[in-house]
Amino acid sequence: MTTVVKIGGARAVDPAGALADVASLREDGEDVAVVHGGSTAVDETLERLGIEPEYVETPSGVVGRFTDEETMEVFEMVFGHLNTQLVAGLQSQGVDAVGLSGVDGKLLYGPRKSAVRVMEDGKRKIRRGDHSGTIKRVNADLLETLFDDGYTPVASPPMAGKDDDEVVPVNTDADRSAAHIAGGLEATLVLLTDVEGIYADPDDPSTLIESVETPAEWADLEDAAEGFMERKVMAVEEALDGGADEVVVADANAEDPILSALSGGGTHVHASALSDTADTEETQ
Fold first, then answer.
1. CATH, residue 199
2. 142, 144, 146, 151 alpha-carbon torsion, rounded to 10°
3. Which GO biological process annotations does it have (predicted)?
């Protein structure tokens, strides 16, 4: 069994429990790839440098970071630091971890988006100078080689962006990076965050959606997702479409967060949830 674990970058997320669980899974002989975020740390560093973080809204309503050249430099610096800290934390647990960015070995590769469509004052506009990309290919062979040699990869953005004839580091979403990696490895994906999972009522933790197995349940899940959870639901869909067998959205701060997620905690979304209605009826 292969598990991909995405550790969130929110300030409220403590990675200690997740790192201990990775060590436990490795002791049991399971392959684990860790992917991490860090947007909060990027924003804090930008503010210390006197740079205002900028977020834009796409015409479809998704809010994301606008990454200009200066922000990209800070992004690379911060993510490199966070990656090293997680690698050291795993090594302290006895796990032989190796840090990678999406640029290394073209682990995450696709075209750079130098211009993005945004909504400003109710109007659609084109913003140029962005340093972001769309993942089109995952170098799963690189990760498999590390697994075979007994290593645990710890990966993060930036990705390798194709810009004309050059490859340049560009920003990409960490949840969706984890989704593409899980799809490429045909693994189970655990998305750890600062809430218990996805709630039917985003303001009421007692409405946790525990399992999603049918297209109707998937539609309800999409309707329930708001704010930052919308991006996680996009990542869930990309992981399952890419070949992952299951995605779990769970609490990073729970006791034994990964082990409890794999044992039934959080919100479990199965590949069958994305089957179209015709296929579902034929199998009944």
1. 3.40.1160.10
2. 140
3. L-arginine biosynthetic process via ornithine; lysine biosynthetic process via aminoadipic acid
* Total length of the chain: 284
253 is in an annotated binding site: no
Q: Residue 11 annotated as binding?
A: no
Q: Measured between alpha carbons, how far is 133 from 112 in angstroms, rounded to an integer?
A: 4
> What integer best gives the mean pLDDT of the chain?
92
The span from the CA of 232 to the CA of 179, in Å, is 9
For 172, phi and psi rounded to 5 degrees? -155, 160
Cβ-contact 5, 22 below 8 angstroms: yes
The pLDDT of residue 64: 83
Find all residues with CB under 8 Å of 184, minimum gap 6, and list them.
138, 139, 140, 143, 242, 243
Q: Is the pTM of this model over 0.85?
A: yes
pLDDT tens-digit map of 168-205: 999 999 999 999 999 999 999 999 998 999 999 999 99
- Report in angstroms the alpha-carbon separations of 212 from 29, 76, 220, 252, 267: 29, 36, 9, 20, 8
The C-alpha atoms of residue 267 and residue 186 are separated, in whole angstroms, by 19
In this structure, the strands spanning 31-36 and 2-7 are parallel
Instruction: Look up residue 32 and give its two tokens.
Output: 């684990």
pLDDT tens sequence across 75-103 = 999 999 999 999 999 999 999 999 999 99
Please work out, in degrees rounded to the nearest 5, the angle formed at the alpha carbon of residue 280 by the alpha carbons of 276 and 284. Answer: 175
Q: Does the pLDDT at position 126 exceed 50?
A: yes
Residue 97: phi and psi, rounded to 5, are -95, 150
pLDDT at 281 over 60: no
Q: What is the residue range of 111's domain?
A: 2-283
Longest dimension (CA), the chain: 60
